Every structure is written in structure tokens, then in C-alpha cells.
Amino acid sequence: MIRERLLHATGPGGLAVWLAPKPRLTEKLALLAVDYGANDLVIPDGKGRRRTPPGIAHFLEHTLFETAKGNASDLFSTRGAYSNAFTDNTGTGYLFSSPDRWRENLDLLLDFVFHPPFPPAKVEKERGIILQELRMYRDSPSSRLSENLQRALYRKHPVRLDIGGTLASVRAIRRDDLVACHDAFYAPSNACLVAVGALRMDDLLETAARRVPVRRHPRPPHVLPHEPAAMARRKVSVRLEVAQPQLLLGFKDIHPPEEGPAMLRRRISVGLCLSLMFDRSAPLYGTLYDAGLIDEDFGGGYTAERGFAYAAVGGKTRDPEALTRRLLKGMAEARRRGFRAEDLARAKRKSLGAFIRLFDHPQALAPAMAAAHFLGLPLLDYPKHLKACGMDEVRAALDGPLAEAGHAVSIVWPR
Question: Of the four listed, 120, 203, 217, 331, which is most buried by Cβ atoms within 10 Å?
């Protein structure tokens, strides 16, 4: 069914190296991912625990691009490569893709991530850029909608905080903080190099041997607070410059699996349940659409990562309160009636198709491979677990991760 191969090896310092061979691709992509994200606000330094300001992982991502030879993005461009980076709640990633000059570009990637100079003037330059970004995001309806939902669902877990931090926390970050976080989390043993394209594992390992530090120490623990089951609040709303209201209805999964096959299975079962409830082919979707409560952008999904998991569904609506009531009522009816076997089979076919298409998109495949590595998810076992996921498991999601008692609402109203 799935004819793809994913090759794995261990490089210097314990660096995990993964390769998805794609002999027919002209572009070659490399992603260097680090198991360190916005949720990691505590440095376990051996002498205790040092707290760092929110937004520091994102700040560090920005700063690493400033090398002694110039900005890494500019250097990639001169070599015909596209480059980018991202920080999310649980990880940071740096990538490039290019048709040629592959080894030269891979040298640059490994150099600027593992050997940053942290020039003080450049740190201050990036601080200013990040502060501008934060001011811009404050007026973004989609950003505020999702951030406010996380603040409603979570009381203590840092997922409730903005990935970029706040204006005050970014101003509080110092160069020494950045260096300390890099020393603690950017060890090869806490990183993963993923390549997609017409490449050989031997070539990846040879380049890594030249550029990656050989120091090896255990992966640092992720120090996270205990999150209570109760939500922080039931509803959060804000007024912004929007043409019509927007809604996100969220559900807090209070017992998410931490990692491995159990997490993969939870993602599958909840994803299928959401598909059966809210996809365009679902009866509830048609009812809500005909009532003028949703449009084509309506949708939802389930996020399950280390220490937190939640589902969210929503979009633009003329009446957020009425839509919330109708959604909760539709889910209550599904608990009573269940789902049809033929609809579950259709949802599984759709999910399998999306998984197969993932392997045709290197910029989506590489982050998925890195995330699977860090969480111990058997990526190529997805079809097996999808097939084995039965109706009872899917229906159980309505009483567990999607229980009505665990819901909260985020609304953006027009000014």
C-alpha cells in the first residue's frame, strides 16, 4: 500500500539522520530540527532549573541566522537555495531546498545552527524585528482567535502563551539567555537532520561528520507544569477589524498520550471522529451551511503534542452563539446515534489519501518525519493503525477528548 522508504542512521554526537529517498525529484530538501520549542521555558542546567522569558525559542531561531559571514538567508539565496525556519510549541526547524550546490548548502545549514556567534548588535536588530512582528500579530484575527482559545483551555501549561512571547518578555531576553538555551537544547543528541530527494545516506553522514559537534550528552528533559483538568475559562472574546464574527469551539483532552503508538492512535481516532462530524459530506455540515451559520472555510482539527492535546472547530459565522449551540447539540446527537459504518470507511479512505499525498510534498513530509522521530511515532505504521481503528474507538472520542464538559469558546467580534 505504501511503497515509500524512510532510512535512519545516527550521526556525530548522537544526531538522528533520516532520509526519504526520492530519485525523481530535482529539488533536494534538508531540515535540521531541534526538540526545543516555545513550551520549553525551563533550562535544567544540572545545578537547578533556570526559567527563561516566553518567546525565547523564537528569538533564538531569528538570531541564529546572523552568521559571521552575513545573514544565512542571503547566503542561501546566492547559492540558488530557498530557505526558511519555524518555531512552534514543541520544536524549532531550519530548512533549505535547492537543485544543486547541495553539500555547500548543507554545510551552511549545519554551521549556522550548531556554531552561532551571537553578535550583540545582531541580537538587538532581531529584537526590534520580533517586536514589530508581535505588534502585527495583535491585529491578526486568526492569530488572536487560536491564541485566545488556548488561553481559555489551559491554566498553567505554556501552550497558553504566545509562541513569540510578549513585548515585555522579548525586551527582557538577553544575549546570555540565548547562549544558555543554545548550550542546553541545541546538542546533536537533541536534534534531527531530515533530507528528502535524490540523495544518499552516506553523503549526509559524511557532511555531518565534518560540521556537527561531536559532544554527546543525554537529551535534556522537558520541564512542564502540571496542568489541571479544568479549563481556565469557558469563553474569551475580543473585538477586531473584521467583516463578520469568527468562532473557534475547542475541547481539552485532559489525558493525552505522551508519545509513541498510543499518541498516533489517538490522533487517528479523534481525527476520524472530527471528519465524521464536520467534513463537508457530513449531515451536520450541510444543515449548518443551509442555515447560513458557516461558510466554505469552516473546519476543524486535533492537535496532540508533548503534554497537551486539544481539538478545535470553527470559522466565520453570522451568529457565534447560535453556532456554538448547534455544534454542541450535533455532537450530543452523535453520542446517542453513533456513526454509520460506510461513513467511517469513507473517512478512513480520505485520511489514507492525505497520508499518501504527504510523501509528494517534501516541505510537509520533512517536518512530519522530524516530529515523528522526537515523539517516537512510527510514521510508516500509520496505515496499519488507521485500518485497525474501529467504530468503538472513534465513538469513544466523543466521551473523552471531545467531551462537552471540556469545551471552551473563542470569538472575534467586529469592532
Answer: 331
